[in-house]
Protein backbone atom coordinates (compact mmCIF):
# COMPACT_ATOMS: atom_id res chain seq x y z
CA UNK A 1 0.00 0.00 0.00
CA UNK A 2 1.13 3.55 -0.76
CA UNK A 3 0.20 6.49 1.43
CA UNK A 4 -0.30 9.56 -0.74
CA UNK A 5 -0.86 12.01 2.14
CA UNK A 6 1.53 14.83 2.98
CA UNK A 7 4.75 13.58 4.55
CA UNK A 8 7.36 14.93 6.96
CA UNK A 9 9.51 17.82 5.64
CA UNK A 10 12.32 15.54 4.40
CA UNK A 11 10.00 13.24 2.46
CA UNK A 12 7.15 15.66 1.73
CA UNK A 13 4.92 14.72 -1.18
CA UNK A 14 5.70 17.26 -3.85
CA UNK A 15 3.85 17.71 -7.11
CA UNK A 16 4.95 19.58 -10.20
CA UNK A 17 2.22 20.24 -12.75
CA UNK A 18 2.80 21.38 -16.33
CA UNK A 19 1.38 21.09 -19.80
CA UNK A 20 3.59 18.52 -21.50
CA UNK A 21 5.19 19.98 -24.61
CA UNK A 22 8.51 19.18 -26.29
CA UNK A 23 11.36 21.11 -24.76
CA UNK A 24 14.96 21.14 -23.74
CA UNK A 25 16.11 18.94 -20.89
CA UNK A 26 17.90 20.70 -18.05
CA UNK A 27 19.83 19.01 -15.26
CA UNK A 28 18.70 19.75 -11.72
CA UNK A 29 19.82 18.42 -8.36
CA UNK A 30 17.42 16.00 -6.66
CA UNK A 31 18.08 17.80 -3.34
CA UNK A 32 17.27 21.24 -2.02
CA UNK A 33 20.31 22.57 -0.16
CA UNK A 34 19.85 25.44 2.30
CA UNK A 35 22.54 27.17 4.38
CA UNK A 36 21.76 27.07 8.11
CA UNK A 37 24.70 29.21 9.23
CA UNK A 38 27.82 30.71 7.64
CA UNK A 39 31.12 31.01 9.45
CA UNK A 40 33.01 34.27 9.21
CA UNK A 41 36.03 33.92 11.52
CA UNK A 42 35.03 35.22 14.96
CA UNK A 43 32.21 32.65 15.15
CA UNK A 44 34.47 29.95 13.76
CA UNK A 45 36.14 29.07 10.48
CA UNK A 46 36.91 26.03 8.35
CA UNK A 47 34.85 23.23 9.88
CA UNK A 48 36.24 19.87 8.84
CA UNK A 49 34.07 17.73 11.08
CA UNK A 50 30.55 16.37 11.18
CA UNK A 51 27.92 17.74 13.50
CA UNK A 52 26.79 15.94 16.66
CA UNK A 53 22.99 15.73 17.07
CA UNK A 54 22.42 15.96 20.81
CA UNK A 55 19.66 14.71 23.05
CA UNK A 56 18.74 18.34 23.81
CA UNK A 57 17.70 18.90 20.18
CA UNK A 58 20.71 21.03 19.26
CA UNK A 59 23.76 20.30 17.14
CA UNK A 60 27.29 20.60 18.53
CA UNK A 61 30.44 20.87 16.47
CA UNK A 62 33.96 22.19 16.06
CA UNK A 63 35.75 24.48 13.65
CA UNK A 64 39.41 24.04 12.79
CA UNK A 65 40.10 27.78 12.72
CA UNK A 66 38.47 30.97 13.89
CA UNK A 67 37.38 31.99 17.36
CA UNK A 68 38.75 34.50 19.84
CA UNK A 69 42.46 33.89 19.17
CA UNK A 70 44.32 36.12 16.72
CA UNK A 71 43.48 35.58 13.04
CA UNK A 72 43.14 33.00 11.60
CA UNK A 73 42.23 31.59 15.00
CA UNK A 74 42.81 28.23 16.65
CA UNK A 75 39.34 26.77 16.47
CA UNK A 76 36.07 26.67 18.37
CA UNK A 77 33.37 24.48 19.86
CA UNK A 78 29.85 25.63 19.02
CA UNK A 79 26.19 24.89 19.62
CA UNK A 80 23.70 25.31 16.77
CA UNK A 81 19.92 25.19 16.68
CA UNK A 82 18.06 23.86 13.65
CA UNK A 83 16.94 27.45 13.02
CA UNK A 84 20.54 28.62 12.62
CA UNK A 85 21.18 30.26 15.99
CA UNK A 86 24.89 29.66 16.71
CA UNK A 87 26.58 30.01 20.10
CA UNK A 88 30.35 29.77 20.46
CA UNK A 89 30.94 27.67 23.58
CA UNK A 90 34.75 27.78 23.63
CA UNK A 91 37.69 29.15 21.69
CA UNK A 92 40.98 27.30 21.71
CA UNK A 93 44.16 29.14 22.67
CA UNK A 94 46.98 26.55 22.43
CA UNK A 95 47.07 26.01 26.20
CA UNK A 96 43.70 24.26 26.13
CA UNK A 97 44.32 22.82 22.67
CA UNK A 98 44.25 24.03 19.07
CA UNK A 99 42.83 23.14 15.66
CA UNK A 100 40.19 20.50 16.36
CA UNK A 101 39.80 18.40 13.23
CA UNK A 102 37.30 15.93 14.65
CA UNK A 103 33.65 16.01 15.64
CA UNK A 104 32.41 15.58 19.19
CA UNK A 105 30.83 12.67 21.03
CA UNK A 106 28.35 12.84 23.90
CA UNK A 107 28.93 10.54 26.84
CA UNK A 108 26.08 9.15 28.98
CA UNK A 109 27.33 11.57 31.67
CA UNK A 110 25.90 14.37 29.47
CA UNK A 111 29.27 15.93 28.66
CA UNK A 112 30.84 16.31 25.24
CA UNK A 113 34.30 14.90 24.50
CA UNK A 114 36.69 15.68 21.69
CA UNK A 115 40.26 16.04 20.50
CA UNK A 116 42.45 18.82 19.16
CA UNK A 117 45.17 18.09 16.64
CA UNK A 118 47.59 20.63 18.13
CA UNK A 119 48.15 22.55 21.34
CA UNK A 120 48.28 21.32 24.90
CA UNK A 121 51.37 20.89 27.05
CA UNK A 122 53.48 19.44 24.25
CA UNK A 123 51.86 21.19 21.30
CA UNK A 124 50.82 17.92 19.60
CA UNK A 125 47.21 17.59 20.62
CA UNK A 126 44.78 17.13 23.48
CA UNK A 127 41.68 15.34 24.67
CA UNK A 128 39.07 17.61 26.23
CA UNK A 129 35.69 17.57 27.92
CA UNK A 130 33.15 20.36 27.55
CA UNK A 131 29.71 20.82 29.01
CA UNK A 132 26.78 21.87 26.84
CA UNK A 133 27.08 25.28 28.54
CA UNK A 134 30.71 25.71 27.51
CA UNK A 135 32.82 24.72 30.54
CA UNK A 136 35.94 23.23 28.93
CA UNK A 137 38.43 20.98 30.71
CA UNK A 138 41.64 19.63 29.17
CA UNK A 139 41.86 15.98 30.16
CA UNK A 140 45.06 14.86 28.45
CA UNK A 141 47.99 16.30 26.50
CA UNK A 142 49.59 13.87 24.07
CA UNK A 143 53.24 12.89 24.15
CA UNK A 144 55.30 11.49 21.30
CA UNK A 145 54.90 8.07 22.88
CA UNK A 146 51.12 8.14 23.30
CA UNK A 147 50.40 9.78 19.93
CA UNK A 148 50.54 13.00 17.96
CA UNK A 149 47.94 14.99 16.04
CA UNK A 150 44.72 13.14 16.86
CA UNK A 151 42.27 13.94 14.06
CA UNK A 152 39.50 11.45 14.78
CA UNK A 153 36.30 11.58 16.77
CA UNK A 154 36.44 9.56 19.97
CA UNK A 155 34.33 6.40 20.15
CA UNK A 156 32.26 5.50 23.19
CA UNK A 157 32.96 1.90 24.16
CA UNK A 158 30.51 -0.53 25.68
CA UNK A 159 32.58 -0.28 28.87
CA UNK A 160 32.02 3.50 29.15
CA UNK A 161 35.59 4.36 28.19
CA UNK A 162 36.57 6.32 25.09
CA UNK A 163 38.66 4.92 22.23
CA UNK A 164 40.55 6.81 19.59
CA UNK A 165 43.47 7.14 17.20
CA UNK A 166 46.34 9.56 16.69
CA UNK A 167 47.91 10.19 13.28
CA UNK A 168 51.51 9.98 14.42
CA UNK A 169 53.59 9.13 17.44
CA UNK A 170 53.92 5.78 19.15
CA UNK A 171 56.87 3.42 18.95
CA UNK A 172 57.13 3.74 15.15
CA UNK A 173 55.91 7.35 14.91
CA UNK A 174 53.16 6.21 12.54
CA UNK A 175 50.17 6.51 14.82
CA UNK A 176 48.53 4.94 17.82
CA UNK A 177 45.28 3.41 19.02
CA UNK A 178 44.36 4.30 22.59
CA UNK A 179 41.76 4.03 25.34
CA UNK A 180 41.05 6.94 27.68
CA UNK A 181 38.74 7.28 30.66
CA UNK A 182 36.49 10.28 31.20
CA UNK A 183 39.01 11.42 33.83
CA UNK A 184 41.88 11.47 31.34
CA UNK A 185 43.73 8.25 32.16
CA UNK A 186 45.12 7.05 28.81
CA UNK A 187 46.30 3.56 27.81
CA UNK A 188 48.07 2.80 24.53
CA UNK A 189 46.46 -0.25 22.92
CA UNK A 190 48.63 -0.49 19.82
CA UNK A 191 51.34 1.43 17.96
CA UNK A 192 50.77 1.40 14.22
CA UNK A 193 53.34 1.20 11.47
CA UNK A 194 54.42 -0.35 8.20
CA UNK A 195 52.38 -3.36 7.03
CA UNK A 196 50.04 -3.02 10.00
CA UNK A 197 48.84 0.30 8.61
CA UNK A 198 49.92 3.81 9.44
CA UNK A 199 48.64 7.37 9.91
CA UNK A 200 44.99 6.86 10.90
CA UNK A 201 42.71 9.88 10.46
CA UNK A 202 39.38 8.22 11.21
CA UNK A 203 37.47 7.23 14.29
CA UNK A 204 37.10 3.65 15.45
CA UNK A 205 33.89 1.65 15.19
CA UNK A 206 32.89 -0.77 17.93
CA UNK A 207 30.99 -3.43 16.05
CA UNK A 208 28.32 -5.76 17.38
CA UNK A 209 31.02 -8.37 18.09
CA UNK A 210 32.58 -5.97 20.62
CA UNK A 211 35.78 -5.45 18.64
CA UNK A 212 37.04 -2.13 17.27
CA UNK A 213 37.46 -1.60 13.54
CA UNK A 214 39.26 1.21 11.75
CA UNK A 215 41.22 2.43 8.75
CA UNK A 216 44.63 3.89 8.08
CA UNK A 217 45.60 6.24 5.25
CA UNK A 218 49.02 4.70 4.78
CA UNK A 219 50.87 1.47 5.49
CA UNK A 220 49.54 -1.97 4.69
CA UNK A 221 51.00 -4.26 2.07
CA UNK A 222 51.16 -1.55 -0.64
CA UNK A 223 51.49 1.46 1.66
CA UNK A 224 48.11 2.78 0.50
CA UNK A 225 46.15 2.15 3.66
CA UNK A 226 44.46 -0.71 5.44
CA UNK A 227 41.38 -1.89 7.32
CA UNK A 228 42.08 -3.36 10.75
CA UNK A 229 40.47 -4.93 13.79
CA UNK A 230 41.69 -4.46 17.35
CA UNK A 231 40.25 -5.79 20.58
CA UNK A 232 39.71 -3.53 23.57
CA UNK A 233 42.77 -5.26 25.05
CA UNK A 234 44.98 -4.39 22.09
CA UNK A 235 45.08 -7.61 20.01
CA UNK A 236 45.54 -6.28 16.47
CA UNK A 237 44.72 -7.83 13.06
CA UNK A 238 45.02 -6.38 9.56
CA UNK A 239 41.92 -7.34 7.60
CA UNK A 240 42.65 -5.77 4.22
CA UNK A 241 45.26 -3.70 2.39
CA UNK A 242 44.39 -1.28 -0.40
CA UNK A 243 46.26 -1.50 -3.71
CA UNK A 244 44.87 1.55 -5.60
CA UNK A 245 42.76 -0.59 -7.96
CA UNK A 246 40.37 -1.27 -5.11
CA UNK A 247 40.88 2.16 -3.52
CA UNK A 248 43.59 4.01 -1.67
CA UNK A 249 43.97 6.17 1.44
CA UNK A 250 40.76 5.84 3.42
CA UNK A 251 40.40 9.02 5.49
CA UNK A 252 36.91 8.11 6.67
CA UNK A 253 35.96 5.49 9.21
CA UNK A 254 33.67 2.48 8.99
CA UNK A 255 29.99 2.00 9.73
CA UNK A 256 28.16 -1.26 10.30
CA UNK A 257 25.06 -2.30 8.37
CA UNK A 258 22.71 -5.22 8.58
CA UNK A 259 24.32 -8.64 8.75
CA UNK A 260 27.37 -7.19 10.44
CA UNK A 261 28.86 -5.90 7.16
CA UNK A 262 31.09 -2.82 7.34
CA UNK A 263 31.03 0.05 4.84
CA UNK A 264 33.58 2.76 4.12
CA UNK A 265 35.19 5.04 1.56
CA UNK A 266 38.64 5.68 0.17
CA UNK A 267 39.65 9.20 -0.85
CA UNK A 268 41.73 8.04 -3.80
CA UNK A 269 42.21 5.00 -6.01
CA UNK A 270 39.55 3.05 -7.83
CA UNK A 271 38.90 3.09 -11.57
CA UNK A 272 39.47 6.83 -11.92
CA UNK A 273 41.73 7.47 -8.90
CA UNK A 274 38.95 9.64 -7.46
CA UNK A 275 37.97 7.39 -4.58
CA UNK A 276 35.61 4.51 -3.87
CA UNK A 277 32.82 3.19 -1.68
CA UNK A 278 33.38 -0.34 -0.40
CA UNK A 279 32.01 -2.98 1.91
CA UNK A 280 33.97 -5.51 3.93
CA UNK A 281 33.06 -8.26 6.34
CA UNK A 282 34.57 -8.53 9.80
CA UNK A 283 36.68 -11.39 8.40
CA UNK A 284 38.10 -9.25 5.58
CA UNK A 285 35.99 -10.27 2.57
CA UNK A 286 36.04 -7.13 0.40
CA UNK A 287 33.79 -5.74 -2.36
CA UNK A 288 34.11 -2.40 -4.17
CA UNK A 289 30.65 -0.83 -4.57
CA UNK A 290 31.43 2.35 -6.52
CA UNK A 291 34.38 4.12 -8.12
CA UNK A 292 33.98 7.88 -8.39
CA UNK A 293 34.41 9.60 -11.74
CA UNK A 294 34.41 13.27 -10.73
CA UNK A 295 31.69 14.69 -12.97
CA UNK A 296 28.85 14.24 -12.13
CA UNK A 297 29.16 11.87 -9.15
CA UNK A 298 31.96 13.60 -7.19
CA UNK A 299 35.55 12.90 -6.26
CA UNK A 300 37.60 12.28 -3.12
CA UNK A 301 35.25 11.26 -0.28
CA UNK A 302 36.96 12.03 3.01
CA UNK A 303 34.15 11.47 5.49
CA UNK A 304 32.62 8.46 7.18
CA UNK A 305 29.32 7.32 5.65
CA UNK A 306 25.94 7.74 7.31
CA UNK A 307 23.39 4.94 7.39
CA UNK A 308 20.11 6.77 6.91
CA UNK A 309 16.79 5.92 8.50
CA UNK A 310 15.71 4.52 5.10
CA UNK A 311 18.57 1.98 5.08
CA UNK A 312 20.54 3.73 2.34
CA UNK A 313 24.08 5.05 2.83
CA UNK A 314 24.83 8.76 2.46
CA UNK A 315 28.17 10.51 2.06
CA UNK A 316 30.07 13.54 0.81
CA UNK A 317 32.95 14.22 -1.55
CA UNK A 318 35.23 17.26 -1.33
CA UNK A 319 35.50 17.77 -5.10
CA UNK A 320 33.67 16.95 -8.31
CA UNK A 321 29.99 16.91 -9.11
CA UNK A 322 27.86 18.36 -11.86
CA UNK A 323 29.86 21.28 -13.26
CA UNK A 324 28.50 24.76 -13.94
CA UNK A 325 30.24 28.05 -14.76
CA UNK A 326 31.74 28.06 -11.25
CA UNK A 327 33.06 24.51 -11.46
CA UNK A 328 32.13 21.75 -9.03
CA UNK A 329 33.39 21.58 -5.46
CA UNK A 330 31.99 18.51 -3.81
CA UNK A 331 28.82 16.49 -3.61
CA UNK A 332 26.33 14.71 -1.42
CA UNK A 333 25.54 11.20 -2.61
CA UNK A 334 23.29 8.27 -1.83
CA UNK A 335 24.23 4.63 -2.36
CA UNK A 336 22.55 1.33 -1.60
CA UNK A 337 24.33 -1.52 0.14
CA UNK A 338 24.43 -3.23 -3.27
CA UNK A 339 26.02 -0.27 -5.04
CA UNK A 340 23.07 1.57 -6.64
CA UNK A 341 24.32 5.15 -6.72
CA UNK A 342 22.71 8.61 -6.98
CA UNK A 343 24.23 12.09 -6.76
CA UNK A 344 21.97 14.30 -4.66
CA UNK A 345 23.67 17.72 -4.70
CA UNK A 346 26.74 19.53 -6.00
CA UNK A 347 28.43 22.41 -4.19
CA UNK A 348 29.48 25.56 -6.05
CA UNK A 349 30.87 28.97 -5.11
CA UNK A 350 27.67 30.25 -3.51
CA UNK A 351 25.96 30.62 -0.15
CA UNK A 352 26.01 26.86 0.46
CA UNK A 353 29.80 26.67 0.63
CA UNK A 354 32.22 24.20 -0.93
CA UNK A 355 34.26 21.08 -0.14
CA UNK A 356 32.46 19.18 2.63
CA UNK A 357 35.11 17.22 4.52
CA UNK A 358 32.62 16.34 7.23
CA UNK A 359 30.06 13.59 7.00
CA UNK A 360 26.29 13.77 7.18
CA UNK A 361 23.96 13.53 10.16
CA UNK A 362 20.19 13.11 10.18
CA UNK A 363 17.70 14.80 12.48
CA UNK A 364 14.44 13.37 13.81
CA UNK A 365 12.48 14.71 10.83
CA UNK A 366 14.83 12.98 8.39
CA UNK A 367 16.65 16.09 7.12
CA UNK A 368 20.36 15.72 6.42
CA UNK A 369 23.00 18.17 7.64
CA UNK A 370 26.67 18.60 6.84
CA UNK A 371 29.43 21.20 7.01
CA UNK A 372 31.43 22.78 4.21
CA UNK A 373 35.00 23.86 4.80
CA UNK A 374 35.02 27.10 2.81
CA UNK A 375 32.98 29.84 1.13
CA UNK A 376 29.38 30.68 2.00
CA UNK A 377 28.38 34.27 2.76
CA UNK A 378 31.02 34.51 5.49
CA UNK A 379 33.67 32.87 3.27
CA UNK A 380 34.80 30.52 6.06
CA UNK A 381 32.47 27.55 5.58
CA UNK A 382 28.88 26.68 6.39
CA UNK A 383 26.41 24.27 7.89
CA UNK A 384 23.79 23.21 5.34
CA UNK A 385 20.52 21.29 5.41
CA UNK A 386 19.38 18.94 2.62
CA UNK A 387 15.86 17.86 1.71
CA UNK A 388 14.54 16.16 -1.40
CA UNK A 389 13.85 18.71 -4.10
CA UNK A 390 10.65 18.88 -6.12
CA UNK A 391 10.58 16.39 -8.97
CA UNK A 392 11.88 18.29 -11.97
CA UNK A 393 9.85 17.11 -14.95
CA UNK A 394 11.40 16.90 -18.40
CA UNK A 395 9.17 16.33 -21.42
CA UNK A 396 10.22 15.37 -24.94
CA UNK A 397 8.53 13.72 -27.91
CA UNK A 398 10.22 10.43 -28.82
CA UNK A 399 8.01 9.65 -31.83
CA UNK A 400 4.84 10.85 -33.46
CA UNK A 401 2.76 8.99 -30.89
CA UNK A 402 4.88 8.97 -27.77
CA UNK A 403 6.16 11.33 -25.12
CA UNK A 404 9.07 10.68 -22.78
CA UNK A 405 8.74 12.10 -19.27
CA UNK A 406 11.67 12.03 -16.84
CA UNK A 407 12.27 13.42 -13.38
CA UNK A 408 15.01 13.54 -10.78
CA UNK A 409 14.65 11.00 -7.99
CA UNK A 410 16.06 9.55 -4.77
CA UNK A 411 17.09 5.91 -4.64
CA UNK A 412 14.44 3.65 -3.20
CA UNK A 413 11.73 6.32 -3.17
CA UNK A 414 8.45 5.64 -4.97
CA UNK A 415 6.77 8.08 -7.33
CA UNK A 416 3.36 8.26 -9.00
CA UNK A 417 2.65 10.03 -12.31
CA UNK A 418 -0.84 11.57 -12.54
CA UNK A 419 -2.76 13.60 -15.11
CA UNK A 420 -5.81 15.81 -15.43
CA UNK A 421 -7.47 17.85 -18.16
CA UNK A 422 -8.73 20.54 -15.79
CA UNK A 423 -6.55 22.11 -13.13
CA UNK A 424 -9.61 23.51 -11.35
CA UNK A 425 -10.79 19.98 -10.52
CA UNK A 426 -9.38 18.15 -7.46
CA UNK A 427 -9.21 14.70 -9.02
CA UNK A 428 -6.03 13.47 -10.73
CA UNK A 429 -5.85 10.12 -12.52
CA UNK A 430 -2.93 7.77 -11.95
CA UNK A 431 -0.96 6.83 -15.05
CA UNK A 432 -0.06 3.23 -14.34
CA UNK A 433 1.45 2.09 -11.07
CA UNK A 434 4.09 3.65 -8.86
CA UNK A 435 7.72 3.78 -9.98
CA UNK A 436 10.57 3.02 -7.56
CA UNK A 437 13.86 4.78 -8.28
CA UNK A 438 16.95 2.68 -8.93
CA UNK A 439 18.95 5.70 -10.12
CA UNK A 440 18.89 9.47 -9.75
CA UNK A 441 16.38 9.76 -12.61
CA UNK A 442 13.18 7.95 -13.61
CA UNK A 443 11.94 8.06 -17.20
CA UNK A 444 8.78 6.71 -18.79
CA UNK A 445 7.55 6.66 -22.37
CA UNK A 446 3.82 6.39 -22.85
CA UNK A 447 1.39 7.16 -25.65
CA UNK A 448 -1.30 7.94 -23.07
CA UNK A 449 0.63 11.08 -22.24
CA UNK A 450 -0.51 12.61 -25.52
CA UNK A 451 -3.55 14.86 -25.64
CA UNK A 452 -4.34 18.52 -25.80
CA UNK A 453 -4.51 20.55 -22.60
CA UNK A 454 -3.51 17.67 -20.37
CA UNK A 455 -1.55 18.43 -17.25
CA UNK A 456 0.74 16.01 -15.44
CA UNK A 457 2.41 15.85 -12.08
CA UNK A 458 4.72 13.54 -10.14
CA UNK A 459 4.17 12.75 -6.48
CA UNK A 460 6.78 11.41 -4.06
CA UNK A 461 5.22 8.58 -2.07
CA UNK A 462 5.91 6.76 1.19
CA UNK A 463 4.92 3.26 2.26
CA UNK A 464 1.98 3.14 4.64
CA UNK A 465 3.08 2.90 8.26
* Low confidence ranges: 1-28
Category from helices, strands and their pairing: mainly beta
According to CATH, the fold-level topology of the domain at 2-29 and 391-463 is Immunoglobulin-like
Q: Considering DSSP H and I runs of 4 or more, what fraction of the residues is helical?
A: under 10%
Radius of gyration: 24 Å
Helices, by number, come to 0
What is the name of the CATH architecture of the domain at 2-29 and 391-463?
A: Sandwich
Kindly report the average pLDDT value: 88
End-to-end C-alpha gap: 9 Å
* Tally of strands: 37
Tertiary shape: globular
What oligomeric arrangement do these chains adopt? single chain
Percent strand: 35-45%
CATH domain class of the domain at 2-29 and 391-463: Mainly Beta
The description of the largest β-sheet is: 6 strands, antiparallel
Overall description:
- It is a single chain.
- This protein has 465 residues and is mainly beta.
- The chain has strands at 2-3, 18-19, 31-38, 52-53, 59-63, 76-80, 86-91, 105-106, 112-116, 126-130, 136-141, 155-156, 162-166, 176-180, 186-191, 205-206, 212-216, 226-230, 236-241, 255-256, 262-266, 276-280, 286-291, 306-307, 313-317, 331-335, 341-346, 361-362, 368-372, 382-388, 394-399, 402-408, 414-420, 429-430, 435-436, 441-446, 455-463.
- The chain has no helices and 37 strands.
- The strands form nine sheets. Strands 1, 2, 33, 34, 35 and 37 form a six-stranded antiparallel beta sheet that branches.
- Strand 26 and strand 27 (341-346) form a beta hairpin.
- The N and C termini lie close together (9 Å).
- The model is unreliable at 1-28 (pLDDT under 50).
Amino acid sequence: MINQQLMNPFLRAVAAALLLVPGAIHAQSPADVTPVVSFSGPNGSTPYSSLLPSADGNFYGTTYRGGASAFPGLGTVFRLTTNGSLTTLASFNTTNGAKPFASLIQHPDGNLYGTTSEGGTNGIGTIFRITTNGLLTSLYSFTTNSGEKPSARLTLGNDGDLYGTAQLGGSKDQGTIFRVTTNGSLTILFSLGDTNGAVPYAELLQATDGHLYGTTTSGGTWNLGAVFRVTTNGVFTVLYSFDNTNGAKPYGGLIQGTGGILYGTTAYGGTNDSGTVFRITTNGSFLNLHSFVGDPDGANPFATLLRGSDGFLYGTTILGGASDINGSWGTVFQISTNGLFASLATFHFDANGISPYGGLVQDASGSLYTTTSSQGTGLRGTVVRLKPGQPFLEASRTSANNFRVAWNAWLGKSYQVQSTTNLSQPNWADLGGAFTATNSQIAITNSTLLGSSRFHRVKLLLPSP
